[in-house]
Amino acid sequence: MNAGKAVYGILSTNAEVTAIVGTKIFPEVAEQETALPLIVYQLQSVAPEDTHDGPSKLDEVRFEFLCYADTYNGAADLGDKVRGALDRVSGTYNAVNVESVQFNDVDIDVIDAPRRYGQSLTFTFRIKRDNVEIAQGTPVTGAMLGDLYNVDVAGVTDNQILSYDAATGNWVPADDAGGLVDSVNGLTGTVILNFDDLNDVDTGTPSDGQLIAYQQGEWVTIDQDEIHIPINSVTGLQTELNTIPTDLNDLSDVSIVGTPTGNQALIYDGTANVFKSLPNFTNRFEDEAEINKQGITQFAERVYTVKADGDGIFIDAESDTPTAGKVIKRKIYQKAGFLESGAVIGDFTLIHTFADDTAYSAT
């Protein structure tokens, strides 16, 4: 009876169980002097489901699990983890095919000298006997071809034959001597094709939003920004593109007057409701301000002129650090009238005096 191998396979790979007992999972009886907590599983009974024409292919095996711990809570917790690991489990464990596991009952034992607690749980395992062997040398009567473990006759119909399916290791019904389908890239059985299974498709590992494009003899994945469509091939697109503005003067609210020259700017004309290229009056006379500054005083730091057709500003800040033993005096002069290169400081009116050593940035 191999059911015990399945029991150990399930419990020894369950993280919640091994977190409590480690590898202390024993069949029938624990090793002497093993420290708690631990688990002992014991075979109670086996109920085969015999068939009329052969041995049982399904056994119901009853196990008892003894979960020992030093405390009541410890035994209860361990029992809860064992139940969680086993209840309604199915699959193959240690080469044993477990169809299902059903929880039956639970009880608590108390053992003295020394005091310890054990939670006893019972489960019924349904074990599929996939490798049943028919005894040799004794005639077997009533056996059918479908009773063999590597023969699957499900769905067989009139005039079908058996063909060996290497993928599953079973003999299965087929329609002709050709057997199962073996014509699509070597796939057999019920063939389910993916896009990438086609010979002229190489999708690699596609990501969301990618497209398929034909390149150098095969279909491959590309990103959306890699699409190249000839403009002339799109109806009306070239005509629309030809109407897109390419020059400033193409805009409906811009009117270039004549040929623009240096220092002109776009200025909004409220009457015509358009921007027009007109002379730029901002700092138009910077050079004139620099030239005329020379005659006023060699220490003039900032000259600003205003005319009807523009202004001019020239800046030449002096140091904020005075010569030893001296102070810096900064003043503002103003003159109404034309600024000429022959103007001197006496031609201007003093309108403000800053405190001694005031920094240029503060003025």
Radius of gyration: 49 Å
CATH topology of the domain at 3-128: STM4215-like
State the helicity in percent bands.
Answer: 10-25%
CATH second-level architecture of the domain at 3-128: 2-Layer Sandwich
Compute the number of strand runs.
18
For CATH, the homologous superfamily of the domain at 3-128 is named as: Phage tail protein-like
First and last CA, distance: 104 Å
State the shape.
elongated
- Biggest sheet features: 6 strands, mixed
Unreliable runs = 132-140
Helix and strand sequence: HHEEEHEEEEEEEEHEEEHEEEE
How confident overall, as mean pLDDT? 82
List keywords for this structure.
363 residues, alpha+beta, STM4215-like, 6-stranded mixed β-sheet, 3-stranded mixed β-sheet, 5 helices
